[in-house]
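ok so i was messing around last nite and threw this chain in just to see what happens. nothing serious, just curious
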Amino acid sequence: MIIAKADVVVFEEIERVYQFVALDFVANYPRWSPEVVELEALSTGPVRLGYQARQVRVDQGHRSESIFEVADLEPLKRVCFKGVSAPYRSLYEFDDVSSSTRISFSFEVEVLEGRLRPFEKLIRIAVQDGAKRTVRKLKLLIEKEMLDHGE
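result:
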């Protein structure tokens, strides 16, 4: 199993951060993860437990497609996306830190394909770098969006 974790403090209230990441996920996910070249909601209505989407990603030249679903959702606390067609999990946790919010992000790859095992060390490094990039990009987007709206 490969696990990467990163966190960041966003200078914005938890309700707005949670809204941006969890509830407005379909609109915002490609903004903080530019590797996502296509995102399609497979469920209708708001993001909720069991909600599914399909993504096409291009990571360092490697194209992959997967279906994932919301496996855990606790308002203002966490949202977890789990691969349905691939063995991965993305978890975003939110902590209220006196009018700011700490986002803790973790990404897990449960099983590495046999052909990729010789590159496990490089993949671990790339996944950890990706986790750090994810939280930095979230911080920038959320804080900029709130500034742009004069809030």
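not much to say yet. The mean pLDDT is 91.
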